[in-house]
Task: inverse folding
């Protein structure tokens, strides 16, 4: 017989929200607290990509399982805008093609949905790609979600269960645990009682997270992105450039080491640790990025040079001018320092867990991480 638990989740981002969905699916009651009126962190400042293609070997099963769970969630909540559209990594030099050829020769290439395509076949898959490149590495397992509308849509679905309550503008200040359960006091002086608390702080590593768990084994990463006006035609896959090969462990190997040696990045790309990722939103605009900055304190402004570089790369691959840029922003996510772990998951007190640090993989791995937590906790 299922023992129904009262589960309190702190944090309204993708990790907290997928944990809420998993708990509700398993028959439990959930209260979720979010300090902002709506999540404003990395969850809504990303591409919305479910990115299987470049995951490390130890991440691959979780990424593939997460893709399945996103498909299930989309069947229950169509408004999240999930598309199993795949991706195309466009290769402009022989050294980049060699990295793709090495990836194609590995035993997991089929699981990743890899196919190395000549330009004519790239164009057949994605007719918007009329620019300059030697080949395209197609990954049929990649997908996309509408990151800025997914969380409200999921919450509306959870509220219909009658077993879920979302408290916006509510900051958890203190958590205590005793024989009667877990008690969380918020910034309005209210106390929420539960059997179990799961704290998902995102990139907010001070405050409650530090009070509970001390210095977490995480670092923060800042990135810059932008969005265009509608493109006016369909981009049938997400796209990436050859620089993206440098940032995904699934491409590690001799060919990548050779690429790093014989083909330095462009100065702007190297200075900002850049890759191109690009996905089309349902409204037709393109979300384009990104950069990587690791040294805090982070700048509070955004630099124009990376945007100019990314614009040039996208236009070369599309073979056309981009529509006007309508939005630019920066975001920060937290990253687990142990490369062998998908996320930091720890219990600083009885029936209190902290889950944080998917490291830019939150949208990709969120549902699978929530499933793993639920299994580990015996929910």
Result:
């Amino acid at each position: 017989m299922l023992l129904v638990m009262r589960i309190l989740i702190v944090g309204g981002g993708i990790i907290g929200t997928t944990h809420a969905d998993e708990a509700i699916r398993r028959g439990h009651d959930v209260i979720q607290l979010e300090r902002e009126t709506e999540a404003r962190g990395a969850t809504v400042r990303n591409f919305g990509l479910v990115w299987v293609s470049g995951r490390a070997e130890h991440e691959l099963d979780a990424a593939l399982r997460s893709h399945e769970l996103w498909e299930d969630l989309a069947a229950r909540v169509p408004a999240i805008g999930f598309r199993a559209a795949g991706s195309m990594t466009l290769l402009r030099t022989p050294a980049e093609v060699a990295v793709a050829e090495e990836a194609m020769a590995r035993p997991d290439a089929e699981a990743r949905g890899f196919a190395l395509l000549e330009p004519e076949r790239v164009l057949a898959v994605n007719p918007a790609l009329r620019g300059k490149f030697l080949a395209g590495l197609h990954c049929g397992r990649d997908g996309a979600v509408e990151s800025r509308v997914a969380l409200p849509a999921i919450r509306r679905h959870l509220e219909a269960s009658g077993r879920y309550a979302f408290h916006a503008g509510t900051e958890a200040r203190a958590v205590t645990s005793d024989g009667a359960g877990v008690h969380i006091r918020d910034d309005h002086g209210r106390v929420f009682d539960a059997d179990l608390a799961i704290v998902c702080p995102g990139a907010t590593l001070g405050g409650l997270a530090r009070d509970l768990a001390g210095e977490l084994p995480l670092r923060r990463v800042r990135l810059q992105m932008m969005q265009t006006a509608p493109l006016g035609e369909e981009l049938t896959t997400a796209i990436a450039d050859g620089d993206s090969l440098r940032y995904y462990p699934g491409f590690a190997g001799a060919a990548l080491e050779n690429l790093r040696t014989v083909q330095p990045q462009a100065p702007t790309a190297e200075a900002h640790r850049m890759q191109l990722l690009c996905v089309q939103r349902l409204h037709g605009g393109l979300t384009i990025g990104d950069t990587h900055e690791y040294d805090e304190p982070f700048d509070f402004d955004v630099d124009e040079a990376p945007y100019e570089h990314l614009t040039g790369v996208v236009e070369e691959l599309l073979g056309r001018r981009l529509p006007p840029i309508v939005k630019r922003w920066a975001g920060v996510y937290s990253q687990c320092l142990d490369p062998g772990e998908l996320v930091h998951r720890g219990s600083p007190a009885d029936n209190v867990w902290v889950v944080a640090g998917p490291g830019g993989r939150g949208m990709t791995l969120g549902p699978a991480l929530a499933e793993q937590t639920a299994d580990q906790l015996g929910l």
In short: The mean pLDDT is 95. The first helix runs from residue 14 to 25.
